[in-house]
Amino acid sequence: DAKTTQPTSMDCAEGRAANLPCNHSTISGNEYVYWYRQIHSQGPQYIIHGLKNNETNEMASLIITEDRKSSTLILPHATLRDTAVYYCIVRVMEYGNKLVFGAGTILRVKS
Amino acid sequence: EAGVAQSPRYKIIEKRQSVAFWCNPISGHATLYWYQQILGQGPKLLIQFQNNGVVDDSQLPKDRFSAERLKGVDSTLKIQPAKLEDSAVYLCASSLTRGQSTDTQYFGPGTRLTVL
């Protein structure tokens, strides 16, 4: 079972920041948080991952709370092409660090 | 750099028929994964290969599903005989190393299977 909880869906206006929350209250100290997204009819695409510190790359920023029980993925300037299902995943060592996908959050970016 | 290649992209078969999917991972990637994604759900891991050996096939329905990666590069996933509930997208992914917590998986476009 996935160790994360995400809202089922969210809407965001084009050009605005999209903030996608994720709860992972049972995360262990050495388990990473990963974010993937899946655009319609495509395979999942890696976005970003982190352990403790906030991370940023060309696609997004990942903010992890100090207690590591939750995180937020930030798309700074959402475009229509960012409409997708966003998956927050905790890689669990006792599961061999497998990616265990939940249902994710459907993000709809609207013009 | 070329991504993960899969074929065919779409397949329609009748129940009890057999079907095979092919995957060519990113060059140099030692680990290959097959996932099943049923409509409305996240992908579920079926089998993981490290080079040509099976690392994890705990979720593979072995009575009808089989997979191989004979030369440690490309892989095939077979279903025989297919059932209606096998209708799904079958995704292949690869990663450079095996199962480390920072090992990033890269996915192919998937094969959409419809069983009638």
Give the topology, please:
The complex is a heterodimer of chains A (111) and B (116).
Chain A (H helix, E strand, L loop, with lengths): L8 E5 L4 E6 L9 E6 L6 E6 L4 E2 L4 E4 L5 E6 L8 E7 L14 E6 L1
Chain B lengths: L4 E3 L2 E4 L5 E6 L6 E7 L6 E7 L2 E4 L8 E4 L6 E5 L8 E8 L10 E2 L3 E5 L1
Parallel strand pairs in B: 2-11
Antiparallel strand pairs in B: 1-3, 3-8, 4-5, 4-9, 5-6, 7-8, 9-10, 9-11
Outline the structure in words.
The complex is a heterodimer of chains A (111) and B (116). Chain A has 111 residues and is mainly beta. Chain A has strands spanning 9-13, 18-23, 33-38, 45-50, 55-56, 61-64, 70-75, 84-90, 105-110. In chain A, the strands form 2 sheets. In chain A, strands 1-9-8-3-4 form a 5-stranded mixed beta sheet, with no helix packed on it. The model of chain A has no long low-confidence stretch (mean pLDDT 92). By secondary structure, chain B is mostly beta strands. Chain B is built from no helices and 11 strands. Chain B has strands at residues 5-7, 10-13, 19-24, 31-37, 44-50, 53-56, 65-68, 75-79, 88-95, 106-107, 111-115. In chain B, strands 2, 4, 5, 6, 9, 10 and 11 form a 7-stranded mixed beta sheet that branches. In chain B, strands 1-3-8-7 form a 4-stranded antiparallel beta sheet, with no helix packed on it. The radius of gyration of chain B is 13 Å and the shape is globular.
Q: What are the salient characteristics of this protein?
A:
heterodimer, A: 5-stranded mixed β-sheet, 0% helix, globular, B: 116 residues, mainly beta, 4-stranded antiparallel β-sheet
Got a strand count of chain B? 11
Which pair of chains has the greatest number of interface residues, and how are they split between the two chains? Answer: A-B, 23 and 24 residues
Assign a percent range to the helix content of chain B.
Answer: under 10%
Strand-pairing-aware structural class of chain A: mainly beta
Radius of gyration of chain B: 13 Å
Low-confidence segments of chain B, given as residue ranges, are none
Number of helices of chain B: 0
